[in-house]
Amino acid sequence: MSALENFKHAETFANMALSEKLEATGYVILLGMGITFIALIGIWAVTALMSKTIQSIEKKSEITKVNGNIANVKVSEAANMPVISQVDKTDDLELVAVITAAVAAAMNTSVANIHVSSIKRNSNNTPTWGIAGRSELMNSRA
Q1: Among residues 33, 30, 16, which one has the least CA distance to residue 8?
Q2: pLDDT for position 34
Q3: Residue 6's closest CA among 30, 32, 33, 25?
Q4: pLDDT at 128
Q5: 39 pLDDT exceeds 90?
């Protein structure tokens, strides 16, 4: 019988010499560590494959977004300078009107009482759950 087969029965394991016990224990350790190492390599490979797949999908979506934005900007053939179409200007005015109306509604006042001088995008990378937590905390202090 091999050393690993003696692990099956407690009686045979008790009768083994110390060197045989150490040999069998070494086999078990190497087998366990080997299986774990192979499993970790498999998990790493799957993770790397998923990462590359997601990156390729994101690149395709970025290309689609860029192509969509290029369709909105007309290029003057004479000067090769971008010309913003009238549609973009009206979209900006509508955006200002919507933001002004939202601010007026939040402040419980009339739109006539609010003067918007500029609108700038805030680069806030806080996740939604963080914003909700802050809002809940601030509301509980009142």
Answers
A1: 16
A2: 96
A3: 25
A4: 87
A5: yes
